[in-house]
Task: structure prediction
Amino acid sequence: MIKKIPSWLIVLAVVLILVMMFSGSYNQIITLNEGVDAKWSQVLNVYQRRADLIPNLVQTVKGYASHEKETLQAVIEARAKATQLNVDLDKLNQESFAKFQEVQKQMSGSLSRLMLVIERYPDLKANQNFLALQTQLEGTENRITNERRMFNESVKFYNTYIRKIPQNLIAAIFGFEKKPYFEAEESAKEAPKVSFE
Result:
């Protein structure tokens, strides 16, 4: 004769299965959140590398283009703003992210103006110190692009995961929110105008 399973045992089994399911999802959200944080730290790392190269670049240019003080000062000020801005990983939201991107955009703009100034100095462009710094800066810009791409991939995976059922319930209960992406700047949507006048 088959014994009837007590109903409390069935309820307990269902509760245990649900707890295991939810704890697995919670642990995966934690893992993905930490992955996004790690990628963000790497993005900050390459931006710091760029900021560290700038004083050497400015010093090298200063010797050749001392009368370009306004451009050099703009680069120094943009670097100071970029290194003073601290973005808290726990508070990485659209607002703090936009502020970070704006500061980095100013840094990129001042570096672009500096490179235009450098074009006027053939001796500087041939200087070995400058060439080495320029190569390092180009490599760093490529790293920034790559790290931003990897960060966005990590954010996409995380955001997708926390929006699925039942993870969306767990994310809501424990306060996990969507993370922002790096996006192209408005100026990147238009093709640059080239003129040979």
The first helix runs from residue 7 to 64.
